[in-house]
Amino acid sequence: MNYYPVNLNIKGQRCLVVGGGQVGTRKVKTLLDCHADVTVVSPMVTETLQAFADTGKITLEKRGYWKADLEGILLVIGTTDDEALNRQIYTDAQKQNTLCNIADKPESCNFILPSIVDRGDLVISISTSGTSPAFAKKLRKDLEKQFGEEYREFLQLMGAIRRKLLKEKHDPEAHKYAFEKLIDKGLLEQVKKRETDKINALLREMFGEGYLFEDLM
To answer: N or C: which end of the chain has fewer CB within 10 A?
Structure first.
């Protein structure tokens, strides 16, 4: 493999996006979805980025990039159409051991961004190591059909059950079998079909009273 697969926790971490166009806007949205502390540097920005700045969701610097912008930054994403500037961002980031991604330029990255299927706590990443973004996009669309929104709600329910068990001081190892049985007994399909009565009956069978779908969700 050319890349080491990893899921990075950037909650509250300072991240920089250089470039305020449509590509930069998409990158910012994903960073915000992951609860990052985002700064955008660009003389011109989209209406969306301006609105984010006006509501305090991001820090916006309406000017050109400075090397000092990288101070204290965990990762930087360059989305400009200025090749020389993009190379400078990458060079500066390398010197400071900062994670750097230049959009559509895998040779100027020390990490790349996969195509993502987002179903809440289920995140499926697809990467062709930068060789074919078009094929990664096709795979993402195929997987989005296979893994529908029911996976989001299913995992919300599983997480709520786990938290309730832990609050009641259950041994995590002791209820591992119960979670496997929930899957084997078709809980996912029941969630997909919104079969609340069957879900509650299954939860009662596995955990006793006090575990109701409507209360847990």
So the answer is: N
Structural domain contains residue 8: no
Instruction: List all residues 6 or more positions away from 112 whose beta carbon is below 8 Å from its beta carbon.
Output: 3, 101, 106, 127, 129, 130
Both tokens assigned to 142: 């195929």
Range of the domain at 38: 14-112
Domain at 125, CATH number: 3.30.160
Domain count, the chain: 3
- Output the pTM of the full model: 0.84
- 205 and 142 assigned to the same domain: no
47 and 137 both lie in a single domain: no
Tell me what the pLDDT averaged over the chain comes to. 94
Phi-psi group of 82: left, alpha or beta (phi > 0 → left; psi -120 to 50 → alpha; rest → beta): beta
* pLDDT tens track for 130-183: 888 899 999 999 999 999 999 999 999 999 999 998 888 777 777 788 899 999
